Amino acid sequence: MLKKDLRVKILSLRNSLTTEYLSDQSLQLANTLLTLPIWNFSYYHLFLSISEKKEIDTSYILSILQGKDKNIVLPKMADDQTLKHFLLTDSTVIKHNNWGVPEPLDGIEVPTTKIDVVFIPLLAFDTKGNRVGYGKGFYDIFLKECNPDVIKIGLSLFEAEESIDDIAPDDVPLDYCITPNKVYSF
């Protein structure tokens, strides 16, 4: 299936979800995430959910990371399709940008080379670890700046597609994708 068709399919599926179902599935996904061998690292990059787009509620993952006393890094979108990365602290101020994405206003910037694990928003993924995002390329650009051994974990409410037919050479594949019921390892 082509990326544009997958975007339409998944956004339609998401729109049909109730708030209660989304919350239950997000909690289950966070609990499934606990089974991964990723908890010995220090810097974890986590996106904050766009609730209006019915994205996975990452507040459960945020709570796990805080409970494990990890350094949490939040992305901030720049106009040139890049991301800046800020350490979450007690004084971090979160605001919604023009696209409705919650992000830090500013703070302590973290270099991409310090990041050990990246949780990646996505719309769909396939059995080979390829993913479909919103189509702006922010995460592909960011992931290429990270160390080659950074662990890339997609978060999805839905199971894997068999294949994404129009993967580009610049697309960065996942190491894992977590759904509420399954861990995919690539």
Keywords:
186 residues, Rossmann fold, two-stranded antiparallel sheet, globular, EC 6.3.3.2, 5-formyltetrahydrofolate cyclo-ligase
Short summary of the structure?
With 186 residues, the chain is α/β, with parallel strands linked by helices.
What can you tell me about this protein's structure?
Belongs to the 5-formyltetrahydrofolate cyclo-ligase family. GO terms for molecular function: 5-formyltetrahydrofolate cyclo-ligase activity. With 186 residues, this protein is of the alpha/beta class. The protein has helices at 3-15, 19-33, 59-67, 138-145, and strands at 43-45, 71-77, 83-87, 94-96, 102-104, 117-121, 124-125, 131-132, 151-155, 176-178, 183-185. It has one domain (3-185): Rossmann fold (3-Layer(aba) Sandwich). The protein contains four helices and eleven strands; from the N terminus they run ααβαβββββββαβββ. Strand 4 (94-96) and strand 5 form a beta hairpin. The longest helix has 15 residues, at 19-33. It is globular.
Number of strands: 11
The total number of structural domains is 1
The largest sheet has its strands arranged as: 3-2-1-6-9-10-11
**Which topology does CATH recognise?**
Rossmann fold
Family: Belongs to the 5-formyltetrahydrofolate cyclo-ligase family.
Protein name: 5-formyltetrahydrofolate cyclo-ligase
Keywords: ATP-binding, Ligase, Magnesium, Metal-binding, Nucleotide-binding
Cofactor: Mg(2+)
